[in-house]
Amino acid sequence: YETEPLSADVQITGHPVVNLWVSSTATDGDFIATVYDVDPDGNAETYNIQGQLRASLRKLAEPPYNNLGLPWHSANEADVSPLVPGEPVELAFPILPTSIIVKAGHRIRLAITFSGRGTPRLDPAPEVTLYRDRAHKSSLTLPIIETK
After folding, report:
1. What is the C-alpha to C-alpha distance for residues 95 and 19, in angstroms, rounded to an integer?
2. 58 three-state secondary structure
3. Are 71 and 93 in contact (CB under 8 A)?
4. How confident is the model at residue 121 (pLDDT cuts 50, 70, 90)?
5. Is 0.85 surpassed by the pTM of this model?
6. Is the dihedral of CA 43, 48, 53, 59 positive or negative?
7. N or C: which end of the chain has fewer CB within 10 A?
8. Closest CA to 73 of 88, 85, 90, 49
């Protein structure tokens, strides 16, 4: 997903948050969100703006400390909840904090991938659906700092 070219510089400072509505033919999977700064020539820079969540660990919990209101997952065994194949669920997770200025004329891109280094290889590969409709509002919330 990509914005139109920005009409002014945009400062992103803090923790972006991803809310994804997904389903899969598998009972688990890793979901990775990466934010890119894309220049007018199409070259993308990540600045290590990435977050991830294993779907079975999606249950939100109260953090034991002040975590700035970000989604928090205990990852306790009691909180493990496998996916039901084909059933949409919401995954909410923060992305690593950043502080960058995306220049006017650049675009902001969100790329979603469904496996990482620790993801078990399945054969056949699962089919994953990402939802973006009225009932399933997937989103990326960026911490934008107003500049003068």
Report:
1. 11
2. coil
3. yes
4. confident
5. yes
6. negative
7. C
8. 90
